[in-house]
Structures
1.
Amino acid sequence: MSETKKYTLEEVKEHNNGNSLWLVIHDKVYDVTKFIDEHPGGEEVLLEQAGKDGSESFEDVGHSSDARELMEDYFIGELVDADKGKSSFKPVFSSSSESSDDKPTSIWSWLFPVGVALLVALAYRYYLTSS
């Protein structure tokens, strides 16, 4: 069994065009040069992320499980430990407990539907009393 090759972010940055296109997704390095013409989102999307950490863009699009499996064909290695986690991407769902910054969002997740239901009830009542 061979050991996984390690790359620095500097090495990845050198592969930033259509002739040699590498990108990082979740600290893993992919050579997607041969995939440029096949990418469903078009080559521009890949060229925009060339030589960079594309984790956030990858997750924003919401790739399918098939797309995630296809990535394995282009996997060439991992980032060196010193460069891992340097991206600004933070997963939306984590196993850690909810931070205090997330609490207003959870309040709005139930408060908004309750408010809409109240407005609908008031409009219905107004409709019944006016007819």
2.
Amino acid sequence: MRRAALALGGALLAWAGPPVPTPPPHYEAPLWPAPRPFQQPQGSWESRESDESREPDGSGPSRKPRDGTAYSRDDTAAQVVAAVNRHRTRAGCGPVRLRASLNRAAQAHSADMARRQRLTHTGADGSGPAARMRAAGYHPRHTAETIAAGVTTPQAAVRTWMDSAPHRDIILTCRYTHAGVGVADGGGGPWWTLDLATGH
């Protein structure tokens, strides 16, 4: 009897209550939209820059789809913003206007993503969207950024963002007044950046 009581006491000491739950594994949201394996699509932009490919005013390289139609970077940015503003108008928001400084920030980030083959809001130097806007000469008060890879036209890029609730909410935030657009070639691309902001 004494032996049984000792065994029971030992069992009670060994049992310290229900097991402590282990914390869930660290969750990392998947990249969105995930870059597709690269296939050079018809209509994608040449990535080389030369004196012949620069705009007449020297502001930057023109982009030429493989079908021979020429699109300048300014044309591409204007098409993205026109598509964005159509959605904003339907939602009762005012239009956003392109700013050269935001275009510089967005273009630099698209080029950075293309070089690293990574869809991310964090630059290779650890910068975020607001820091990149400031570095490009813009003084932001409110900022947002949407990115995409693997879509080949301005309209398809905007449609990709509008098909995602978080990105649609950003585009349809009425307080944004300015925009910048960047697009860069590279495996898995083109790589797109849309910066939206309100300045001081």
3.
Amino acid sequence: MNAFKTNDSKREEFRKYLEKAGVMDALTRVLVGLYEEPEKPNNALDFLRQNLNATGPETADVEALKLEVTELRQKCEQLQEENNDLKARLQQLEPTAEPDNPDN
């Protein structure tokens, strides 16, 4: 009987922790949203993930950042190629060190 009370008290403590952290409210809000959806999504778990992540970055922000990263990578590659070309041209234009020739 004591083990039963210990488990109940642990559950109650955990429930209070979840309530205090706002987890219960967030889960309830998302589950109610899912319940009220006129057309239920094919993947309920994805729906929960998307709606629980409401405080995370906006999808549009993430997409804009991905696009910016792609553009910056392309620019970096372009600049690296330009740098390599300029180094090659510089080597061609620099006078080469000629060994001392006593005949001249």
4.
Amino acid sequence: MTDLRHYDVIVSPAITEKSTTASEHNQVVFNVTRKASKPEIKAAVEALFGVKVTAVNTLLRKGKMKRFRGTVGRQSDVKKAIVTLADGHSIDVATGL
């Protein structure tokens, strides 16, 4: 039985061109909550997907200023986690949970 807190840690997979090229090196990129720590991210990925994680790298992308119909707004900050999987393990992010 997976802990329900694991679903709160991982927000969504990040599907970008850069994350697609990282998948060739056994890495998967996820958008995570701002308060999530590396051990929490590792435990959530291992519990939800049933894989072995060797490393977790995180980065915080600051929100950009955007203009929409003359009104200036600010996008929110996004924390991303680059999860390196052990050899022989893989996650298909296209199928979802």
